[in-house]
What we know:
CATH architecture of the largest domain in chain A: 3-Layer(aba) Sandwich
Distance between the termini of chain A: 54 Å
CATH class of the largest domain in chain A: Alpha Beta
CATH topology of the largest domain in chain A: Rossmann fold
Helix content of chain A: 40-55%
Strand content of chain A: 5-15%
Radius of gyration of chain A: 23 Å
Number of domains of chain A: 3
Oligomer: homodimer
Shape of chain A: globular
Number of helices of chain A: 16
Low-confidence stretches of chain A: none
Amino acid sequence: MLKLDLSKIAPFVGDDLAAVYEELPRAHDYLINKTGRGNDFLGWVNLPFDYDKEEYARLKAAAARIREDSDVLVVIGIGGSYLGARAAIEYLRSPNYNLIKKDTPEIYFAGNNISGTALRELFGLIEGKRVSVNVISKSGTTTEPAIAFRLFKSYMEERYGKEEAARRIYATTDKARGALKGLADGEGYETFVIPDDVGGRYSVLTPVGLLPIAVAGIDTDRLLAGAAAAAEEYQKPGLDNTAWQYAAARNALYRKGYTTEILASYEPAFRFVSEWWKQLYGESEGKENKGIFPASVDLTADLHSMGQYIQQGLRNLMETVVNFEKTREDMIVGTDAANADGLNFLAGKTLSEINLAAIRGTALAHVDGGVPNLRIDLSDMEEEDFGRLIYFFEFACGLSGYLLEVNPFDQPGVEAYKKNMFALLGKPGYEKETEEIKKRL
Amino acid sequence: MLKLDLSKIAPFVGDDLAAVYEELPRAHDYLINKTGRGNDFLGWVNLPFDYDKEEYARLKAAAARIREDSDVLVVIGIGGSYLGARAAIEYLRSPNYNLIKKDTPEIYFAGNNISGTALRELFGLIEGKRVSVNVISKSGTTTEPAIAFRLFKSYMEERYGKEEAARRIYATTDKARGALKGLADGEGYETFVIPDDVGGRYSVLTPVGLLPIAVAGIDTDRLLAGAAAAAEEYQKPGLDNTAWQYAAARNALYRKGYTTEILASYEPAFRFVSEWWKQLYGESEGKENKGIFPASVDLTADLHSMGQYIQQGLRNLMETVVNFEKTREDMIVGTDAANADGLNFLAGKTLSEINLAAIRGTALAHVDGGVPNLRIDLSDMEEEDFGRLIYFFEFACGLSGYLLEVNPFDQPGVEAYKKNMFALLGKPGYEKETEEIKKRL
Lengths: 441, 441
């Protein structure tokens, strides 16, 4: 179950919300009937029903094999090729997944930076352990994962020999074209497909996300079932559509000058869900010199760091809080005879009860301080509701982009740094750019 | 060595920079001669020289004892009582500190949230290991750490007996007053002092930060020496003062409408330094409905998530990049005969060289996209320069707050959520607030 509470934005949006609602049928139609900008990338809309069942069975078998024959899975990917899986694993298992006792492999994410310090450390962490690698790249030439994979490929071949290394490397890539697909076919890696019509930030429910998620021992059937239930719900147009309500609320607030949205949760496990959400919304909306800036906080920790700013800083902030009616675990505050800390008034209360008081008290405080507060409630921290949340955010994001009148499915700005970087590195074919950029430095 | 490159803000600030420089002598005087608002909290200014040497020797002895008799140190604190230590440990040792091979104890941070899931997991993680606890709280009654400490105190006493538990609990707190000081004296905990004139977000170089940092095997002498060198440098007024330059640049940009500052680094180990920085700046400046909103990104990872927004979104962003001339470790890209990934043009290059091309290429791309870019260069990722960076950010933050005409050393907004939370929880003394808040829900 996913509920949205908009009662704490009323004083901030006024009549603008009604105006936005009038634009929603068109945005909805763009997504359902593929009639808007970026309509080549709408494969995610029906993905929870409409996926390759044979491949999915093969993926689950591969995950079972990795759990059986490996102590470590190294996942090589950047952006949408790692954020979804990492979010799911931290959220559904633990932010300390690699530290906790478990009967599933450790999972490390590589190829999402160019740090020699980080990469060398990773090679130290996997020493002596049985390793499998999942390399995730549509093209196989994105610099960060390509560098990491080049190093891991030679590590695996040196350690296991070419044949066994090939058996331990899994490539998630284009179905037919590209450097990684060619290499995988040549070397005999098992491959999984990144569909042509699903962009990176929408790919968590494709093999991109599902293979590492399954290796972590998470029930992907339940995840997909939750997403499917959400798809059924949010594909129905109407004012009671929760995805409509979220898209409308944030867009109306944006028009009123609330140009930064802070996603907040009171569970540390949620942190990488926020990172995934930041890519989803930031990359979908941040173009043509507009868009809501996505930020995130971990509460209550950050009430003691960003809390001051949120309460009394520049008033261009809105806040969306994700709350859970039932958390995974709980503890009870005990009684202390001396009561030196003055906490006996909490004795017998669960941390969840206290946390809920913090959530409700903070929402009121922030609204009083001039920050519109949206609240999303999930039933629990399990697979179905997480699948539901993913699809909810995806669908609302598509709507939001169209309300903003941008193409929610491209990312033209991501090329700019790559072009300069290639020019500086003297990549063949960039001779003219190399000459030009050298003049600027 | 710490250098600041402002060459990429010139097109954005125009004459405003000169105007801000005229205001800096007064702001500087406020800090040095304690003549401005919040002047009760300027103990950090001379802290790198002016600290209790006897206590510092005792602190190092305690750290050595914890390293000797414990497998785990649990650090209980929130906000400034954990961010500085966590930043230092992740940055100078590793963001995977608890996973890497080492001869120093694991360190876990507790009491910075109200999550039963997180706390129960932590009790699982320390099972069977020898534990010490460092509880950090000026008053001892801040809800989050007080709850965690109540649970850990009874865990320690049950496990070790009262006497041995008391020997394994270290309290960093007020020198004379407060619930924790009273309790510590009563129970016989070794105590360390949070000075009266140093606020939480400025406390990393007091025992608040130094005890956990020393337990992690970091050389605190070198850290303090770097901070002392920085103090000597930045306490001299003048246009060549790098702290002046940073404070002036960001303030001038703020006046031009660049109201969000993104702190960026290309080393994953930097992430919690950014979290520490966000508290420092957000809590110091975010008041009276003004202040720069502090955000952070981990690059190059986030070039594939937030990168699109930074390149082409709403143009209210400035970016400060922290770069290292020498990283801790490095790796070299090898040659591959097939060159399927097209990376042979990088063969023989170090990851540092490639990372530097990303840093320079990205700066140019973002400037072309309308984002002013500031760059801080450190010599390396070691203790001295980290101490230098801490003091640099602290001093520049004090200046920045005065330029903004706020009190950089208070945090009146942090109380708002606490008041509501206590009212909702029925804390004795909050009867009137309880009645009022119930009407609102």
